[in-house]
């Protein structure tokens, strides 16, 4: 089985980009939902690789979420 990974990039303007790697099919969306909950953010744009449309467990998905940081 391929190693499962989530690569996360946080940009200066608060945008977050996440790539889900190692999961085929629609299961990758579950990982993005977890990130949204942890970061109190929502997905604003998604794109899928061909692996998303395969059945099993290895997809790469790029998703950008926008998070507004709270001042303390």
TrEMBL record:
It holds the Pfam family DUF2997. Residues 52-72 are annotated as: Disordered. Residues 52-63 have a biased composition (Low complexity). It comes from the Bacteria. This is DUF2997 domain-containing protein. It comes from Paenibacillus albicereus.
């Amino acid at each position: 089985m391929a190693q499962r990974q989530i690569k996360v990039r946080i940009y200066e303007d608060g945008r977050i980009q996440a790539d889900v790697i190692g999961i085929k099919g629609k299961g990758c969306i579950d990982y993005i939902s977890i990130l949204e909950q942890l970061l109190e953010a929502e997905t604003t744009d998604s794109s899928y690789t061909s692996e998303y449309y395969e059945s099993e467990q290895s997809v790469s998905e790029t998703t950008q979420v926008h998070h507004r940081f709270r001042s303390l």
